[in-house]
Design a protein that fits this description.
Largest sheet: 4 strands, antiparallel
Order of helices and strands: EHHEHHEHHEHH
Oligomer: single chain
Strand content: 15-25%
Helix content: 25-40%
Bound molecules: ribavirin triphosphate
Radius of gyration: 15 Å
Strand order of the largest sheet: 2-3-1-4
Amino acid sequence: GRIVASSVEQSYIMIKPDGVQRGLVGEIISRFEKKGFLLKGLKLFQCPKDLAQEHYKDLKDKPFFPGLIEYITSGPVVCMAWEGVGVVASARKLIGATNPLQAEPGTIRGDLAVQTGRNVVHGSDSPDNGKREIALWFKEGELCEWESVLTPWLI
Ligand code: RTP
């Protein structure tokens, strides 16, 4: 659908364990940086099982849920908070469709992944979930409040 990009939002973006294992961390971060979003939080993190379950609680009745939790906790992830005008919907576009075979070339999943169960990156699906997920994955003091000198050139 059409992106209505009018307000400054935050999105929780996470490089999943396959993205870390495959050495795609720099490549993925670079796409959000180049687009013009602002990095407000960043850490490498071994996710405990209960946090993965809380993050994906809406999917708890799905048959793939146990496998999803195992996957997300199988190695370190890179947790990020990205800020910008319309960042939530825009990040979803940059990431591409859930099934990487359906993701357009040029998107992260379209370029870098093959399987739904190994789709290298997560992005919040609404501004409210962006807030919820950033609060879930980051502790107070882990986010940086800063402004880029480029902001006037971006917004
Ligand atoms: P994400 O939350 O990771 O950004 O992904 P999404 O919104 O594109 O997809 P969602 O439907 O919320 O599913 C979350 C993650 O669960 C895994 N999944 N596996 N085996 C399967 O059929 C299946 N379906 C979903 C994927 O890792 C998906 O990103």
